[in-house]
Amino acid sequence: MRASILRSPSPLPGFGLSFGIMMAILSIVVLLPIGALLGRGLMIGPGDLWDMVNSRRIWSALSLSFRAALIASLFNLVFGIVLAWVLVRYRFWGRKLVDAAVDLPFALPTAVAGIALTALYAPNGVFGQALAPLGIKVAYTELGIWMALIFIGLPFVVRTVQPVIEELDREVEEVSATLGARRAYTLRRVVLPTLAPAALTGFALALARSVGEYGSVIFIAGNIPNLTEIAPLLIVIRLEEYNYDAAAAIGIAMLLISFAMLLAINLIQIWSRRRIGLV
Amino acid sequence: MHIEIEELAKEFGTERALHPVSLSIPSGALIALLGPSGSGKTTLLRILGGLEFPTSGRVLFDGSDATGLTVQERRAGFVFQHYALFKHMTVFENIAYGLRARKRRERPTEAEIGRRVNRLLDLIQLPDIGPRYPTQLSGGQRQRVALARALAIEPRMLLLDEPFGALDAKVRKELRGGLRDIHDTTGLTTIFVTHDQEEAMELADLVVVMSMGRIEQVGKPGDIRARPANDFVRAFTAA
Amino acid sequence: MSDITFIRAESVTTEPRLVRGAVIGTVLVLIAILLFAPLIAVFAEALSRGWAAAVASLGAPDARSAIRLTMIVAAIAVPLNAVFGIAAAWAITKFDFRGKAFLITLIDLPFSVSPVVAGLALVLLFGANSSLGAWFIAHDVRIVFAFPGIVLATMFVTFPFVARELIPVMIEQGRAEEEAALTLGASGWRAFLTVTLPNIRWALLYGVLLCNARAMGEFGAVAVISGKIRGETTTMPIMIEMLYNEYLSVAAFSLAAVLALLALVTLTLKSLLEWRHADVLAATRRH
Predict the structure, then answer these.
(1) What's the pTM?
(2) Which is the most buried residue in A18, A260, B81, B218, by most CB within 10 A?
(3) pLDDT beyond 90 at C7
(4) Quick check: A229 and A56 in contact, CB under 8 A?
């Protein structure tokens, strides 16, 4: 086996085979389709692309998708850190069950979550009836979209932060106490900064997932144009009208948001590795 | 087996792990490659075992070019720094691995494999540990199992990467004698890598002192102590 | 003068008992509302007209063909992704080459792409008005609005699961055991089968488990590419949507309950794996 420019030689065989299988499947399943989408955008041209995206209905849909994802992910950021802390540091009855249940949104199909949440929050549902006297409507409003996105984004922050808490050096907290810091101060100034990179990574993952979420949202959203119509739904509508160019235009806008978030996740990880050598 | 190293060099990207080095190792010798970390001693050992490929230079085994031989063809008994025992196999299965991996024509019968493994277990003086798993062994026992596993393939030479590095001081001293005995019984050309000058001096017939990818001095332990070739060797071998 | 000595029984690295109780209580209530309530709702709605109605709805031809299709799709997509995951992990962890970090980012890409965008991208690549799609149709191979498209869409959304689980595990295990096998005369293939595979088997199972759960439940990407042809390209989640939109609540929730049961089985097996084999899984350290 001789050295090549791209690869250091190794006595282990199978590089060609494994690399070939990897690239073949990666290309057919991911790279070529994404390339086809971007290629379609190039064929349409940036000017026309912009004209197609630049309508009130699409802007409302894109901003709704992003806004609702942001709100839900912020909730999950705070709740996720607290939940991870509780699961690692506190002992209580049912802890193991809660720990296992955190992954439910990963395992439960989105369509199932969607109809279940709708059943709960619809005006005749258990929660819907309870909230009606308070004048709160969840189903078929933006609030419903938040609930769906909170559900599907819940595990991300918990699962990124949990291992970091497990490996926290308790001595650091003890030092803080011996230096006279009260517990709240220790948590705010010593513990929280250590968790920040992992929490931000989880937040970004949840955000990326929520912006593109479709299955759990469309049942509860009501899908009223300009009000509760999310961007992925608009793509589906355009496709059903066989308007591929318009669908591609919205798809590219969403893909760019995905790329931006992927970049953000990578930057957070580089930053945290440099700062504290974590993740 | 007589090993001849001719102008062997190794680069990792732009980094030179090994400047062209040459060395002649007489058949049946017990050699120590001694040096601090980053001196290129492990790289040299891995090239001999077929685990790294030199950028330039040649290796001769008994006078014939072995540079292009694959790791399997070399039949070098290699003992890894942390032993690399197969965790999911028993000690018996670990030692039998190389025999069972042979082509059907050359593979001994299961009964013969059993006899050979037991003989090796006797040789390392751990006759009863065949059914155990590596995680149930002490560090010293693991090292001896790794040695037995390497010997099972009837190797042409024995290559050991920091064989005592992961052990505590007391066990280390005990096992030094064990390696010497095995070398004397088998008569195999044996090369071991170490950063411990006392270990090298006490155990080896010939010590190769290395630093920054170069060979600084080759000699008998007494000669190196008495006449260090330069300041580095003097400082490094000062007890 | 007070002679009461206040003994602080608790460790300095925890919060006061009252705070702890309040936090645990809040967390439990929120978990009950956010996670357990929807799960219970699925089963309650499915059984709202009794067991008989629920079971009968699962026997309907549409439901049965949806269950069959979902299982066949998973049976193809999941093994293919497992092969991909093993190949990718082997290439990435056992060899040094340029562009590795970028490659890992590409493998992770499907996690941040909307399933609907994934479906759209596949439609644009293989649809009738692309040159590739036209070529396939000329050769009588239908991909969009047909079975192969559903498999491709499912593979897209579940793409990183196995590779992401294997890569960190194989990085941690290093290359020494495989190298040892080679020095003992084993061929590369033998080293892979007898050394690598046993070392990664639990991590592989874990990745396959998550991949399978997601594959059987995928909705957005399949909704776009399947064309929703009743009895032909309707997987279980698509069928659930159709039944729900037709106000066939019991039928929709019964099918949903089957998927929810699958999710519960997945979670149980996953917890079991984490509990028994935490040392050889990546997920218990990193997600």
Answers:
(1) 0.87
(2) A18
(3) no
(4) no
